[in-house]
């Protein structure tokens, strides 16, 4: 089975540009999580969805960040406008069922560099 | 208060020796799960092992075992017979039943295996 798929794997952009990160969760998984990882702040939960509905977006840094999940097999994280401090690795992860014993499976991550 | 605390930013171990990575957690939820993930230098997050709050026995997965001490709220990862490929960041995480099933991550421990 295919794991969590993220695209692009690497993105280099200039400050002020719009950036869209994409994620395809594992088929049948009900939960989708977006994380950001930096050396300074570690792994931060940005937002997570259950059955395509955003449950908690308190980790979204500011209004420049938005996330959508139009269907069970696709989610986007958009940054508009991007800033150099947004440079990080962005992970998408998915998990099956609302049960504490279910692990989450991570995608390979998108390495974003904003110049 | 931090949900997950990993107090060892960096650890060194001799090849073929065992090493323990510490993790303490904070929860009042009786139902929760504890997870360990490995992140090698290539960047992907790999699920290693899981322990449920109601599990009577410590979890084991190959060379990985989890030293679960519920009263002390600790869930230390033990890696036996360390290999060079074990050099990586290791993250402890928790999922609670009553907080929407999001995952809480520690800050990670960097493990270096010395030949």
Description:
The complex is a heterodimer of chains A (115) and B (115). Chain A is built from no helices and eleven strands. Chain A is mainly β and 115 residues long. In chain A, the strands form two sheets. In chain A, strands 2, 4, 5, 6, 9, 10 and 11 form a seven-stranded mixed sheet that branches. In chain A, strands 1-3-8-7 form a four-stranded antiparallel sheet, with no helix packed on it. The radius of gyration of chain A is 13 Å and the shape is globular. The model of chain A has no long low-confidence stretch (mean pLDDT 93). With 115 residues, chain B is mostly beta strands. Chain B is 0% helix and 51% strand. Chain B has no helices and twelve strands. In chain B, the strands form three sheets. In chain B, strands 2, 5, 6, 10, 11 and 12 form a six-stranded mixed sheet that branches. In chain B, strands 3-9-8-7 form a four-stranded antiparallel sheet, with no helix packed on it. The mean pLDDT of chain B is 94.
Q: Determine the most extensive contact between two protein chains.
A: A-B, 25 and 24 residues
Please bin the fraction of helical residues of chain A: under 10%
By helix and strand content of chain A, what is the structural category?
A: mainly beta
Uncertain runs of chain A? none
């Amino acid at each position: 089975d295919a794991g969590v798929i993220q695209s692009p794997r690497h993105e280099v952009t200039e400050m002020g540009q719009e950036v869209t990160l994409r994620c395809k969760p594992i088929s049948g998984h009900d939960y989708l999580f977006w994380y950001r990882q930096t050396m300074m702040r570690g792994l931060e939960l940005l937002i997570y969805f259950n059955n395509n509905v955003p449950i908690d977006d308190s980790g979204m840094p500011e209004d420049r960040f938005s996330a959508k999940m139009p269907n069970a097999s696709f989610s986007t994280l958009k940054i508009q406008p991007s800033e150099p401090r947004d440079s990080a690795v962005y992970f998408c992860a998915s998990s099956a069922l609302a049960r504490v014993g279910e692990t989450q499976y991570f995608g390979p991550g998108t390495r974003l560099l904003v110049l | 208060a931090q949900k997950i605390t990993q107090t060892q930013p960096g650890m060194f171990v001799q090849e073929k020796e065992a090493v323990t990575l510490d993790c303490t957690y904070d929860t009042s939820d009786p139902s929760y799960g504890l997870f360990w993930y490995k992140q090698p230098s290539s960047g992907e997050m790999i699920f290693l092992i899981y322990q449920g709050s109601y599990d009577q026995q410590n979890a084991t997965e190959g060379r990985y075992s989890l030293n679960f001490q519920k009263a002390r709220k600790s869930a230390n990862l033990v890696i036996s017979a360390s290999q060079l490929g074990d050099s990586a960041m290791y993250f402890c995480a928790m999922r609670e039943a009553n907080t929407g099933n999001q995952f809480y991550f520690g800050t990670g421990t960097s493990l270096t295996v010395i030949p």
